[in-house]
Design goal:
Layout: E1 6-12, H1 18-29, E2 33-35, H2 36-47, H3 52-75, E3 80-83, H4 88-102, E4 105-112, H5 115-126, H6 141-147, E5 159-165, H7 174-185
Parallel strand pairs: 1-3, 1-4, 2-3, 4-5
Helix pairs in contact: 2-3
Length: 188
């Protein structure tokens, strides 16, 4: 059983289904979702997409804004969902500090999948008219294919860890994941 606010971290490679799962859990739990991509797309709209390096800079700025929002919600005692590809070398210290400062507990959902499935979805998304043009994902196809060949690392912080294989979205049981989150967070 968890006491205090819950920081639900939805983590994994691009196109592993982080946003889809985070939005579902947000609706069901009635918790706010703080999303790196949503922030980055607002920055693209304001500053323009620019170059590949600009996209990386806005990505880093998005993470800074994301964690400022996370901290503000924790200051108010609110549980929340973070939708972002979090990496131990960048976010372990931040999440640990938030846990120590605000007495929050973390539950981490790490989404995995087979490289071919993730890359196929990434490629389709890169050329989709529905994807924000600022992401410039068409330019990263070779780079992302290499990255998708390895597991996206989970954060190395005190968390309950739930691993979900999203190779085939039709086999992902969102209700079961919700049940595991509820049980882990003591919400049942």
């Amino acid at each position: 059983m968890i006491n205090g606010p819950v920081l639900l971290l939805v983590n994994g490679h691009p196109t592993s289904g982080k946003t889809r799962l985070a939005e579902y859990l947000g609706r069901e739990l009635r918790w706010p979702v703080v999303s790196k991509d949503a922030i980055k797309e607002r920055l693209f709209d304001f500053f323009g997409p620019g170059t590949r390096e600009r996209s990386r800079q806005l990505g880093r700025a998005s993470v800074e804004i994301l964690f400022a929002q996370v901290e503000a919600l924790l200051q108010a005692g609110g549980s929340q969902i973070v939708d972002s590809p979090l990496r131990p070398e960048h976010e372990d210290a931040r999440v640990t500090r938030l846990q120590q400062t605000y007495g929050c507990s973390a539950v981490q959902i790490i989404l995995t999948g087979q490289k071919a499935a993730l890359y196929g979805r990434y490629r389709a998304r890169a050329f989709s008219p529905d994807r924000h043009h600022g992401h410039r994902e068409q330019e990263f196809l070779d780079e992302i294919e290499d990255r998708l060949g390895s597991l996206h690392p989970a954060l190395h912080v005190p968390t309950e860890l739930i691993a979900v294989d999203t190779t085939d979205f039709s086999k992902v049981n969102y209700g079961e994941i919700l049940g595991r989150v509820r049980a882990t967070a003591g919400l049942d």
